[in-house]
Structure formats: structure tokens, C-alpha cells
Amino acid sequence: MTQSPPGRPHLIEVGGAIVATAIGTLELGVPNPQCIKGRTVRLANVITLAEHRGHGHGTTLVLDVLGWARSVDADRVDLSATPEGQRLYERLGFTMTSAPRMKLIF
After folding, report:
1. What's the confidence (pLDDT) of residue 7?
2. Quick one: which of 12, 9, 74 has its CA closest to 45?
3. How many Å apart are CA 103 and CA 72, to the nearest integer?
4. Residue 51 region by backbone torsions, left for phi larger than 0, else alpha for psi between -120 and 50, else beta
5. Can you list the domains of the chain with their CATH numbers?
6. What is the pLDDT of residues 17-67, one digit of tens each?
């Protein structure tokens, strides 16, 4: 298999200005029952400027990341959703998990 890029930004421009963005990053881990190949794409920073919402930009970006995830042979795509974005992700097949999220800030 060829070397997969570790991440890929996705963006939408209108009139030469960036109005929406998303990024997919490939995380390589230990294969396990929930991730057979150990290849997870993390979807993050799905952002659309307020005045450009409602035009399908978020959906387009997420579908683009999902296509990239398939192209790098990922097992799954993980994300942390805001309440505003949750409907979009559910409509595209994402489901809530019971895994708690923790972080450490330096």
C-alpha cells in the first residue's frame, strides 16, 4: 500500500473568499475489534461562516472528508459534534457513542 497522507484540509470558496472549512486527519492505531485495520479519520473544524449557512456547504465538506477517508482505507470516521452540527452528522449516518471525552490542556 502507498503511504497515506496524514491529513487533508477541505474548503469552499465563494467569490475568492474561504467561507467553509473542514479537515480530516488520519490516525494510525493498534487494530482492535472496533477498528480492524487501526485506521481512523478524525473529522474536525467543520466551520461555515454564518452568512453562508444553509447552502449545503457543511454537507459537501463532510462528504468530501468521507470520500477521502475511504480512499485512505480508514475503518471509521470519528468526530465531536456541537449541538448545531449534530443533525447534519446524524443525517449522514453518524451515531452517538457512549465513549466519554476527556482532555488535558498544558
Report:
1. 83
2. 9
3. 27
4. alpha
5. 7-91 (3.40.630.30)
6. 999 999 999 999 999 998 999 999 999 999 999 999 999 999 999 999 999
